[in-house]
Amino acid sequence: MSVAQPPINHPEIRRLEPVLAPGHTYETVTATISDVVIKRPLGLGWFAGFTLAFTFLMVLTVAVAWLIIKGVGIWGINVPIGWGFAIVNFVWWIGIGHAGTLISAILFLLNQKWRTSINRFAEAMTLFAVACAGIFPLIHTGRPWMAYYMFPYPSTMGIWPQFRSPLIWDVFAVSTYGTVSLLFWFVGLIPDLATLRDRAPHKWQQMIFGALAMGWRGSARHWHRYQSAYMLLAGLATPLVLSVHTVVSFDFSIAIVPGWHTTIFPPYFVAGAIYSGFAMVLTIAIPLRKAYGLEDFITMRHLENMAKVMLATGLIVAYGYFFEFFMAEYSGNKFDVFLVDQRLHGPYSPYYFALILCNILTPQLLWIQKVRRNIAALFVMSLIINTGMWLERFVIVVISLTRDFMPSAWGRYSATVWDYATFAGTLGLFTTLLFLFCRALPAIAMAEMRELVAHTSKDHD
Amino acid sequence: MEHHEPQLYGVMAEFETANQLLHAAEKVRDAGYKHMDAYAPFPVEGLTEALGLGRNKVALTTLLGGLCGGLGGFGFEYWVNVVSYPMNIAGRPLNSWPAFIPVTFELTVLGAALSAVFGMIAMNGLPRPHHPVFNIHRFARASTDRFFICIEATDPKFHLADTARFLEGLHPQHVTEVQDE
Amino acid sequence: MNQREFMDEHNHEHHHVQERGELRILSARAGADVAAEAPLAKHALDLAAVRGKLQARAGKQYWRTLEELAEDPHFTELLQREFPRQAPSEWDEGVDRRDFLKLMAASLAFAGLSGCGVPPRENVVPYVKQPEGLVLGKPLFFATVMPFGADAIGLLVESHEGRPTKIEGNPDHPSSLGGTNAFAQASVLDLYDPDRAQLTTNFGDMRSWSQFLDSAQAAAAAIKSTEGAGFRILTGTITSPLLAEEIQGLLKLYPKAKWHQWEPAVSDGGREGAKLAFGRYLNTVYRVEKADVILSLDSDFLAMGPGNVRYMKEFFRRRKLTGPDGEMNRLYVVEPTPTVTGATADHRLPLRASDVELFARALAAKLGLGGGASLPGAEKWIAAVAADLQKHRGSSLVVAGEQQGAEVHALAHAINAALGNSGVTVYQTEPVEAQPVNHLQSITELCADMDAGKVDTLIIFGTNPIYTAPHDFDFATKITKVRNTIRVSTHFDETAEYSQWHIAESHFLETWGDARAFDGTLSVIQPLIAPLYATHSAREVLAAFSDKPGVSDYDALRDRLKAANSGADFEKFWRKTLNDGVVANSAFTPVAGAAKFSADSLPPAKTIPADQLEFIFRPDPSIYDGRFANNGWLQELPKPVTKLVWDNAALVSSKTSEKLDLAHKAASRGGEHGQIYSPVVDVSLSNSKVTAAAWTLPGQADGVVVLPLGYGRTHAGYTGTNRGFNAYAVRVSSALFTATGGTLKKTDAEYSLACTQYHFNMEGRKILASGTLEEYKKNPNFAHEEDEQPDKSVSLYKPQDFPYAPDKPAWAMAIDLSSCNGCNACVVACQSENNIPVVGKDQVMRGREMHWIRIDRYYTHTPSETDGGHSGDPSEYSPALDNPETFFQPVPCQQCENAPCEQVCPVGATVHSSEGLNDMVYNRCIGTRYCSNNCPYKVRRFNFLRFQDWETPQFKLLRNPEVTVRSRGVMEKCTYCVQRISNVRIEAEKQNRAIRDGEIVTACESACPAEAIVFGDQNDPNSRVSKLKAQQRNYTILGELNARPRTTYLAAVRNPNPEMEKA
Known about the structure:
Structural class of chain B: alpha+beta
CATH class of the largest domain in chain C: Alpha Beta
Largest interface: A-B, 64 and 65 residues
Distance between the termini of chain C: 51 Å
Oligomer: heterotrimer
Number of strands of chain C: 39
Low-confidence stretches of chain B: none
């Protein structure tokens, strides 16, 4: 669908295993994908899963309600550790979001055909992850009902936000990111909504999808502008996604806290984000393709490519860890030296070693093709990496704060049941949204799949 | 709803493959038709050229949107910190411009993205729930696996019989009149 | 503004004073009207009964309502509603406390008699004619004194529309000289303590004061008939002539009656020592200022005991350095357990309490005062000290400890005499105590009499024997043999439980009275407010048994002073006295006669075998002997050396701890700055047992176990009940302060202690700079060795960008670490001035205490972990911890010019003022806590929950109206007392003049008895603060961060004896 296509019978592409199993026609791809939404009845499995997810979502509401009633004191935070699970989870969720945008935007610009069948739910994942992330900056404040102070609105007092603060940058970065991701996702959906409108058996479905499709009729002129817009969005989303985690990393690198104040954070955070993001895509894709028989569209090649990306970004992250140590020792700054020493010998060293195990050692198995092509192994690995990336944020956010400049003010952090409840709750929110998504909207971009069919068929004639 | 005389919108031909549509489009264009449109379930390469459509203005709109966002963003931050609410923050200068860059950037992207999407939608004349082509029930497949080309009645060269015959000559699946009722 | 000046400007106190005299009566009535309302209106009252009663009344009396007079059951029933003693327990104390207080508040609202029922007098009598000198919204200051043991601390009390809110020192009072201590600072909270007893009870049933008077008079008749054979009075130490006169009056009236005294935390050593040395009880006063060399024999004279505030002032005035050419006094301390005095010492020798006497004997011998004693192991030390003392004949001073025995005191007197210090650095006066007696003897006699059933009427006040009496006396059983016990106390405490009558006692801020200070100076206690409840003074209770009951304290006091100062214009004298807070030149004159005493006359010293543990009993640095147990400010006040709060613990030395495996470990909750698990030990001592948490204390003499008194109370009130362990439970008359033969057994149990600073070393960072006078003279710049202070001129910003106005004042603070001994006065002062909440033990364990100024304690010259040395965990043994050098560092907000906190606040809730203050805008704060994370000094405090109590009416009265009461979810921190700055600025602008240096005094500065904290304008080169900052000793903490703090520190300089170094 993009403008500058490489010649379809390009040797590169032919040598690779197909991104779409042979024998598919416009009708078959469209039917397989759209039936999940408009025809297939809700299965028991779906209900079971949804109920579980929804229960966790309720945990979130309870946890937040109690938080509003009592105050952030119900969490484990204190002085000196002013930021705990809330910020850890925020960074973790935002990071996960990144893979979606990366797949849909960057791989699109790089003309990676294999992205087609995974970009839709990857973007959905982005949106839901951003939704989960967005909760935390709000509720972690002492007075959430005053959080609107962070937005530049004309107040009667004539006061404004403080634009030197990375937290304000966050507000703008995250809200922009959310908005653009939503637009990107929606633009991608328009033709598919039209398809659903035209295929839906029930009137009410036609009404809803019709309204959402806004009367899309696949006119050549429409497609023309549509493609320009999509291309531009992809071009905008690419620097945006890089900027978001950079800004998130500023929350730390702009501060003077040892373990936070370091220039390597932006690239290292972005790599980490993609790392965890792809892990999450795998965590979702593997069960999804099984459940809805999409193995033809999400093929082994997709899984293997994602595994490769994880391996690469994992190495960048490892480099980041290494340089944290190197720069500390090289600079000889006594606070940084002490900090890295704490990483290894401090009261929290177990966390650090667990992190190394999850994020650096385990993924090395991905060098082996057998592992890359073993679905079970990949699934487990993706879970390990997600855990590891959560630990990384815990180590950075919490442990750096426990022992900073004044030994007299050193303290420790222990999460309370409410910290855990809130985290589990957002997992609930995320999965609930996913369950709803995969039954309410096409999990794979049909129009793009048809395009793929067109090319492959040409490829074969 | 009040009912008025069905009025001819154009003549439409249906094809099986994208290539057929491409060739048909070229023929129609060479035949000198101006007011026509093609419909496909996915963007068909070369169709724009085949129909002889010019460049679109989405990119320009996006650029303007981006500029507004960026300049507006920085200007606002400057105004707030230097003019409207000058405060000694951490002994930093009022115009700490490097600190204003991240927000400026984000607003640039936001402005550009918004204008790209809504510009595209607007220029496409959407939302438009109803359109004459939807009256052809076979047209439902235009969003799945069929390709259509429609020569509109407003075209100066349009003549129902001739145009229909001309389209028949392109070996389509069907040729139908499109009524606008 | 300077209170002194303020008061002299308005010399109208006497108006109020007189007013106050009568107003108390008015208020009592007014209170009554409130009480008389609603619930009683319903039923008719028997006027005949009332008339009857009225006729029966004789003399000047007040009653609250006719109902009361009629002893109306409904009235009593109304009073019943006063005691909600059940507190719903929630998951954390911070919350718990408030809910409890809501109940209190409700009950108070009910009963017209209580808290809000008797409002401060100004509200009782509306300002038809506003009293002169009182401007609404402007505080007034009244002089009064706080009686404490054998001393009385002179105070100026800040009053807002009649509500005493803040305690300041009285510069004109010899025991204060403007300084205060933590106890005095916190006393205002006791006044508003919602747990105070609020009226008279008999066996727990409400009684009216008049009912008590009746029964007292009835009892008096009986007593008269037996000439008072069964009449006893038990008190604490009393320095009040008025009270003493009342008692003497009773003793005259009832010749066979007896007066007993019991002060649990102070030994008889002082009195008996004087007797040994001078042949009779005498009071000893030090002139610390005149001493060049001071030796403390287990005396914490800088923090405890008579004159401690005065002595602190004088001591540190001799340690102020203006430059390398300065001179300092020298302090040697011999003590079993680290005290603030010991921590200040230039040389400190940890010795077991029992060895201190040996030390004294050995020193006496060295100085040729007879007695061939010697102390193995410490000879060199003794030799060096002796030499130094002799070198400074006439300008040296030996001080013996309050808990030490008579011999040590006698030896101290002898040594002082021998060194020609008597009359120079130390002198004796007539006793300050109204009637000095041997307390142990006194209470022993009382117990014997009670046991023999000889006592039938017993009045107890000023001491709490059921809780504090030696447990072998079994006071609780014996007191039951007393027919009629009258307990007078502010709280319904342990002793009240065992008494027939309980009279709610008025706080010293509510009563008229007098008291003598450590040097005999007489002062008038003048009330700041009418009694909040139906409370009475001890004197009134005594008077009730006399032949003329019902004379008000006010009249009694004036009569006494009239008698004492006949001739002179009394009113003039009266006004001056009240205004100054002291009776002019009433201090005792020194008595002649040197110590006639030789060490030879001493019996051979009893020594304890080295392998035996020595248990010593000491008053707690925060809640003393337990009398302050219900004071939240003091409970949450980190103890100077251990930094423990809300608990006491059995303190053991690092070595002992290692031997008995008593290591504690930091919990993950709060950690080094919160919850510490410490092993629980069984203390078996003198056939009694107590279970305590053990705490390892570096610098403690090996083999010594300190059992701090004052905890484990059963009836202290909500705050103080059942905290820590009760050391009195293992304290017997034969071993009041030093006990042996006990054992310490580790149990498997663990106990959570709240500790605000567990980690003690600086990890090789530039935080607290210290050196010796010698080093300082050699290298005046020693404070800046290898430090990385960036050059101020180096900046990325152009000067015009850099927004600090040179023409405006630049507020700044300099803290001289040479002068800080961690006494904590500033911490409580700040809490009181700035409405800082108490958060409770649970929250402290989570690392959430709220103090705006904290005092960090470091053991210097202990190798830090980063130097491959010690981990900073005190329970991890290292020889360096046997006797570490201890330093204190008060840390308020550093008010950085490049404040890291400001830059990261997303809403601009913390911004810089034009005068360089780092302002906190509470109502703009949304509580992201980013500022706290980014504060390298960690001085910001966050309201994690709603820590403030918004309901309890008493606390509303307590608060400083000039400081916002912060709610949940906002950040707060030291503001340099911006409200005081504004007050002065306004005054200055009204008078169209510049602000004078020293005109603005922050709460911490004014409280500091050591004058270690100086605040002022650093743009004015002649200000005190500029001069201090100009010194080379001046440095900033973590200067390399270039945050440019306005609060800087002067490196601590100590003056060790070079000879000693060689020794």
